[in-house]
């Protein structure tokens, strides 16, 4: 270590082998002379058009790009504002699932999904098995009238079937929207989903949390009765109950029956416009108002590739463990790592149940290389003086991605004292509003007790006290709010600072 204040310094070997270092060399081969992350960040803002074009090319985005990187569109509200209304890649056509499943051609027998729940049940799917199941569910969706632009909703815990359903829906160019039953009551789910006029609902018969078994069949029935636009409902028998409850609905389609009803074949990918909707996130604003934020497909793919590969150093074969809710945009952030050839490792259940080892034993069992957890979760371990490093060597774990507000200096001291002495820590602000981070770390940085997140590549970010502003346009800005004239979207993000994105209630 260079000095006592530093907790960790990346080795020269790890720096040179990082995607970020290789990207800098890639840019320099085109006539630049960038040295380190700070200069790359400045270049990415000054040369925003070229930067996002390079991300498309360097990260091997699949799809038709077109000749135009960005152009002006109609104003979302009132007068035209460049930072708000610039349209990225207006000619581009691509498909979310096609980008995420492309690695299957290289390693069809490698593990794509590694799942475990708090009851100790585990399941893995290879890339080929994942593609086969996506094909089968896609055929069922097509038979039930789901087409490009339709909305499909899910009321599900974070289980393998959720990922398969999400990929099948988006493969058709349809729009995904999900809520988790463990953090969303049925009345809220009804209120959130009904305006979307969904064609299909995915749900499960229940879930487990902290040792309790919660049956959701009655809630599912209420939800289906409320959603009058549904063509069909698939209920996943996640809880292995010995007999059907009194609330079981025999008109629902069964997941296993769907898989058995078709023959797997090549997936048909419906490519849609770069700025078409991909998913709708149900977001509670600081005002208390609930809004349905519409995230666009192209910006989501580009930004997630940038964050995964350059900021978090995710490479083909990386095993990325994440604990997140289907109500959060973190679900999409984790799932998108498939596009970088990563294996998704995930856990359904209370993260501290059956004991504080829950996530760490999965990390060890799966030989995870990267782990994505919230700062709140780590703070709870720190307050309990729990030491994962005492139980597991975690020799495979190289990166810890920490989302949310950082408790300085205690969190970093805890990580390097109780988890791992040789690990890259990547803090990430992870704003739900943009399904990504305005502020984030990178693998070439040394870590000290007051390690600050830096502005993400491609974003010109200003921080004044607790206020975060982004002055330039970026591809993963939301398309807007569902069924909004543009006024609420403008008022929420753009009105406060005369056409500059202002992040509501930001804290570093």
From TrEMBL:
<dbReference type="InterPro" id="IPR000873">
    <property type="entry name" value="AMP-dep_synth/lig_dom"/>
</dbReference>
<dbReference type="Pfam" id="PF00501">
    <property type="entry name" value="AMP-binding"/>
</dbReference>
<protein>
    <submittedName>
        <fullName>AMP-binding protein</fullName>
    </submittedName>
</protein>
<feature type="domain" description="AMP-dependent synthetase/ligase">
    <location>
        <begin position="106"/>
        <end position="227"/>
    </location>
</feature>
<dbReference type="InterPro" id="IPR042099">
    <property type="entry name" value="ANL_N_sf"/>
</dbReference>
């Amino acid at each position: 270590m260079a000095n006592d204040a530093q907790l960790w310094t990346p080795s020269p070997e790890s720096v040179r082998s990082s995607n970020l270092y290789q990207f800098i060399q890639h840019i320099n081969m085109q006539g630049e002379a960038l040295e380190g992350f700070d200069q790359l960040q400045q270049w990415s803002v000054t040369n925003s058009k070229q930067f996002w074009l390079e991300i498309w090319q360097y990260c091997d985005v699949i799809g038709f790009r077109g000749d135009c990187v960005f152009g002006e569109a109609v104003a979302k509200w009132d007068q035209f504002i460049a930072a708000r209304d610039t349209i990225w890649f207006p000619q581009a056509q691509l498909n979310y699932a096609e980008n995420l499943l492309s690695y299957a051609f290289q390693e069809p027998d490698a593990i794509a999904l590694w799942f475990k729940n708090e009851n100790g049940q585990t399941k893995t799917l290879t890339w080929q098995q994942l593609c086969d199941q996506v094909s089968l569910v896609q055929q069922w969706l097509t038979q039930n009238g789901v087409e490009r632009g339709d909305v499909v909703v899910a009321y599900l815990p974070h289980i393998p079937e959720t990922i398969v359903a999400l990929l099948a829906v988006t493969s058709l160019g349809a729009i995904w929207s999900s809520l988790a039953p463990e953090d969303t009551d049925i009345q809220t789910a009804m209120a959130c989903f009904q305006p979307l006029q969904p064609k299909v609902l995915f749900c499960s018969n229940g879930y487990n949390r902290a040792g309790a078994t919660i049956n959701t069949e009655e809630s599912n029935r209420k939800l289906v009765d409320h959603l009058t636009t549904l063509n069909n409902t698939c209920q996943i028998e996640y809880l292995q109950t010995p007999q059907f409850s009194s609330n079981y609905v025999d008109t629902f389609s069964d997941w296993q029956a769907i898989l058995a009803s078709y023959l797997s074949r090549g997936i048909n990918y419906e490519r849609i416009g770069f700025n078409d909707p991909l998913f709708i996130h149900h977001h509670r604003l600081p005002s208390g108002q609930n809004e349905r934020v519409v995230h666009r497909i192209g910006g989501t793919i580009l930004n997630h590739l940038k964050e995964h590969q350059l900021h978090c150093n995710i490479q083909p074969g990386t095993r990325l463990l994440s604990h997140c809710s289907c109500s959060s945009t973190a679900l999409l952030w984790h799932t998108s790592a498939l596009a970088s050839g990563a294996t998704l490792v995930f856990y359904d259940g209370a993260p501290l149940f059956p004991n504080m080892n829950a996530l760490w034993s999965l990390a060890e069992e799966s030989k995870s290389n990267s782990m994505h957890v919230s700062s709140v979760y780590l703070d709870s371990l720190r307050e309990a003086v729990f030491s994962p490093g005492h139980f597991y060597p975690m020799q495979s774990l190289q990166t810890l991605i920490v989302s949310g507000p950082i408790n300085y200096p205690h969190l970093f001291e805890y990580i390097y004292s109780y988890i791992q002495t040789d690990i890259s820590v990547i803090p990430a602000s992870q704003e739900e509003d943009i399904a990504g981070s305005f502020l984030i770390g990178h693998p070439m940085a040394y870590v000290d007790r007051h390690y600050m997140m830096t502005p993400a590549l491609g974003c010109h970010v200003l921080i004044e006290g607790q206020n975060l502003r982004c002055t330039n346009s970026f591809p993963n800005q939301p398309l807007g709010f569902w069924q909004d004239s543009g006024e609420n979207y403008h008022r929420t993000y753009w009105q406060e600072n005369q056409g500059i994105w202002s992040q509501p209630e930001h804290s570093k």
